Each structure stands twice: as structure tokens, then as C-alpha cells.
């Protein structure tokens, strides 16, 4: 990469400096949906496709957030709110760094997702509803979580013993009952193109 | 940027994928020192020089962290610990994304800094002690904070009414009593070269 013309004025580099260099806009693609709906699988596919295209893209998910930044949080209502708030703030930092950041969390509450949307610049928060019937998710159940939740071994499990509030106006809905992962990923990438993120 | 060969196996891209693409190692350069010692000024200079060289580099500082992720935290002992813990965890995420992340926080307690060091992979946490006499800092006092602190208007102000524990074994010390910003920045960049980060 060749150095671009940066202004040596006071202050740190800005989103604009990064975006010019990276040839993309920083943004947050917020995947939401039931456990087993396909958030991780789709975000993984999208990440790899974007990376192959030369983009700079990072994923925040339970593995890298719950065991680190949010390891002090449990699953009480207050802690769930705080969990999503912090993820939103971290996603915002990545966005400011000019990065396309994908988040893959159930994030069941509309209000929490809307709170994240509010802290982002207009147009830089793209909510993707990963839709799948609860029956489909139960059948997939890759980690055996539904089985445990139905048996009462996991309290407050979204879709079983805790609510999931689907998005009212997501930027995109992918219906994984019928679509393949490749198709869903394609829809996400088309969205980024239509929004001139990439 | 040309696509590199990535493995389409299960899971997200790894640090190794990013580092190969970015031609750098992800790392955390942790600046610590008194208010007015020059942490922000030096990190700004280092960021811009690295960016000019083609590197991917982001800065975490009070402006983007205290008003967002850590806006629920005050300056009590517990909150200070949690403040640094979260910054460390966020820095770790940026590092995992293959990015060189600079942090510019007073971070006065040795134990808190060491806790951050412990969560990082060996060699990816570089502590830079930005050394300046308290008298020098008081003279600079760009935000008039020392004046207020001495007048008792800011409680628990590091160096005046709260302790600063200097690093015992920092990877680098820059002495801004005598060095110019350019010289200090050069020392940091030389450190990155000697550690084969860049």
C-alpha cells in the first residue's frame, strides 16, 4: 500500500483517513436471530468473501467477547443490556478505525439493538435479521442447547423460555429456512454494495 | 490489495490471516505516564508515521473510550481498575484483528497494567513509559488540570493527590523532559522494528 496524503494537523487519524486507505466505509453489520439461525455461519462466510475481495473485516462474537471484555457479565436482564451496550461501543470503535465489523449475537431485545443504532453515524449500522423458524433451529441445534433448554437445564433461553423480538425495519432479512449460506452471504454483500460501503 | 490464500475451513479468520495481509504483527503499544507527559502527542506522531509507512494502526484514548464504552465508570479505585481492564480487552480484540493498537492512558497502577499484559500473547504487549518530571508536566499543563488539582478542585489526581507507579520493566522508556516528540516517536518505531512487529 502506498502512503496517502494525510494531514499532519493536531489529533489522531480519522475515519476518513482510514476509509480512503482501505477503499471501504467503516460500518457495523449487526446480525440478530435465534440460536441456530445461522448468524455465525453467515458472518463467517461474509467475512471470508470480503477478505478475499481485499477488504478489512472483523467479527465480534461470543467467543471473543463473552470470555474477555464481558466476562464479568451473566445473563440477568441488566447484564444482557450491558452486554449488548458494550458490544455496540466496541463495534463503534472498529467502525471508527474504518473497519467493516460483523457482530453475531442473538441480541433478542429490540430496544438494545436500537440503542446501538443510535450511537452510530447515520447509515453505518446495518441490521441483518437472520430469520429461521424455531422448529428449524431446534432441528439444527449444533451445540445441543435447545435440548437442554427444553429440559429446563438452561434458564431464560431465547425462543424457549425468553422472548425474541424480531426487527421491525432491518436493513436486510435473510431467511435461512430456505436459503443456502452462500445465498444469504450474497445478499449481505449486495447490501454493502448498494449502500456504497464497498 | 490482492487476495491472499485463505483457508476456507470452519471458523473465522485468524490473527495469522490478518497479519499476513497487513504485513505486520498485531500488537498493543501501551503508553503510560503522568498527565502532560506526552502520551497523546507521541502516540499521535507514531500513528501517523506508521500509517505513512502503510501500516494499520489505531489509537484508544480517553476521548473515544471514556465517552463510550466506559462512560458508566467514574474515578473510584474499582472503576479505575475496570476502566483499564476493559481497555485491555478491547486492545486485545484489535490486536487479534492484526492491528497495531496504541493506548494512551495514565494507567497509574502497575498491577492493572500487568493484568493487561497477562491476557496478551507473549511479545504482543509493549509497555512504553512516557517519563516526565512532575514539574515538567505541571509547566505544560495544557488543559489546566494540574492547576485545578493543586487547588483541590480535582480529587485523586495522579501525581498530586493520587500515586503513579512507574513501570519496573517497560519495553521502552522515552524521557520527554529532554527528547523531542520526533525522537520519542522514532524510539517507538525502532522498538517495533527490533521486535519484528513491522
Please explain how this structure is put together.
- The structure is a homodimer of 198-residue chains.
- By secondary structure, chain A is α/β, with parallel strands linked by helices.
- The first copy, chain A, has one domain (23-194): P-loop containing nucleotide triphosphate hydrolases (Rossmann fold), CATH 3.40.50.300.
- The first copy, chain A, has eight helices and five strands.
- Chain A has helices at residues 15-22, 39-52, 62-65, 77-96, 110-119, 134-140, 145-150, 181-194; strands at residues 27-32, 57-61, 100-104, 125-131, 172-175.
- The two termini of chain A are 18 Å apart.
- The interface between A and B is large, with 39 and 39 residues.
Quick recap:
With 198 residues, chain A is α/β, with parallel strands linked by helices.
Topology (elements, then pairings):
The structure is a homodimer of 198-residue chains.
Chain A: H1 15-22, E1 27-32, H2 39-52, E2 57-61, H3 62-65, H4 77-96, E3 100-104, H5 110-119, E4 125-131, H6 134-140, H7 145-150, E5 172-175, H8 181-194
Parallel strand pairs in A: 1-3, 1-4, 2-3, 4-5
Sum up the structure in keywords.
homodimer, 198 residues, alpha/beta, Rossmann fold, five-stranded parallel beta sheet
Total beta-strand segments of chain A: 5
Alpha-carbon distance between the two ends of chain A: 18 Å
- Alpha plus pi helix count of chain A: 8
CATH fold name of chain A: Rossmann fold
State Rg of chain A: 18 Å
Derived from helix and strand composition plus strand pairing, the structural class of chain A reads alpha/beta
Strand order of the largest sheet of chain A: 2-3-1-4-5
Oligomer: homodimer
The CATH superfamily of chain A is identified as P-loop containing nucleotide triphosphate hydrolases
Major sheet characteristics of chain A: 5 strands, parallel
Fraction of residues of chain A in helices?
A: 40-55%
**Given this structure, which CATH class of chain A is correct?**
Alpha Beta
Q: How would the global form of chain A be characterised?
A: globular
The largest contact between protein chains, plus residue counts on each side, is: A-B, 39 and 39 residues
